[in-house]
Amino acid sequence: MDKAVLDAMRRYLVSDFGNASSIHRHGVRAAVGIEEARAGIAAELECSPDEVFFTSGGTESNNFAIKGRAWSVKNTRAHFVASCIEHPSVMEPLLWLRGRGFAVDFLPVDGEGRIDPDDLAKAIRKNTILVTVGHANHEIGVIQDIAALAQICADKGVCFHTDACQSFTKAPLSTTLAPFAMVSLNAHKIHGPKGVGALIVRKGCRVGPLLHGGGQEQGMRSGTLNTAGIVGMGKALAIACDNDMTVWHFCATGLFQE
């Protein structure tokens, strides 16, 4: 973890330690820190702050996107599509849903680990409710052409989700780049703290909550917010955005460096 991240978090562990859902001054100060982090993430992805939902990390974000989408349609005949090389936090929820009656197809990849957009277009059905393809693979590092994949889904009216935990701040990712419906993020891959992440849910993509309780995060993710962790994630993002980083772009012939 970056030392500056730890320094930013310390305030919310020692002095502004209040519950961000409380209306006393310690709670209000905590809420301000959270909303500043939320605004920073929204600005980076070019989405609205109210489309950013904080979680405990990438695994929860992926489960939230997949199972939440399943809960929203209340139809066990609904269909999901994913690549065959997804992270276990994507594969396992899909297999769990398959065991409960949902239809799931896993698309093959080529010798470099990429999905053929034509294969995706052919796999989408009338009852397809979610396509999930990781942006950068956690094992081989291949970067999918999510702009093309997300556009296919948008044209067919299907929500597209990408697990961007490995690529966040390292490869271009925004609503301008790709018309995604949901994006999973985490903090510890960008020198932030472990145990905190976020799910971007664009307006128009319905998902149901996994956690019920006090109604935090617009009722989408109940539970006392991890203020220090969220502030740390926001600080890590700010540091990453301020630094000169190597940016990789995907084109038809492969990757080139800027």
- The SSE order reads HHEHEHEHEHEEEHEE
Helix content: 25-40%
Judged by helices, strands and strand pairing, the structural class is alpha/beta
Tell me the β content. 15-25%
The unreliable regions are 246-258
Any guess at the CATH architecture?
3-Layer(aba) Sandwich
**CATH third-tier fold name:** Aspartate Aminotransferase, domain 2
Give the terminus-to-terminus CA distance.
27 Å
Total count of strands: 9
Mean pLDDT: 92
Over all CA atoms, what is the radius of gyration? Answer: 18 Å
Number of domains: 1
The coarse silhouette is globular
CATH class category name = Alpha Beta
CATH homologous superfamily heading: Type I PLP-dependent aspartate aminotransferase-like (Major domain)
Largest sheet: 7 strands, mixed
Secondary structure tally, helices: 7
Strand order of the largest sheet: 1-7-6-5-4-2-3
Can you characterise this structure?
There is one protein chain. This protein has 258 residues and is α/β, with parallel strands linked by helices. The protein has one domain (3-257): Type I PLP-dependent aspartate aminotransferase-like (Major domain) (Aspartate Aminotransferase, domain 2, 3-Layer(aba) Sandwich). Helix content is 36%, strand content 16%. The chain has seven helices and nine strands; from the N terminus they run H-H-E-H-E-H-E-H-E-H-E-E-E-H-E-E. It has helices at residues 3-14, 25-45, 58-73, 88-98, 117-123, 146-155, 227-242; strands at residues 52-55, 79-83, 103-107, 128-132, 159-163, 182-186, 197-201, 248-251, 254-257. Strands 1-7-6-5-4-2-3 form a seven-stranded mixed β-sheet, sandwiched between helices. A two-stranded antiparallel sheet has the order 8-9. Strand 8 and strand 9 (254-257) form a beta hairpin. The protein is globular and about 55 Å long. It starts with a helix and ends with a strand. Mean pLDDT is 92; it is low at 246-258.
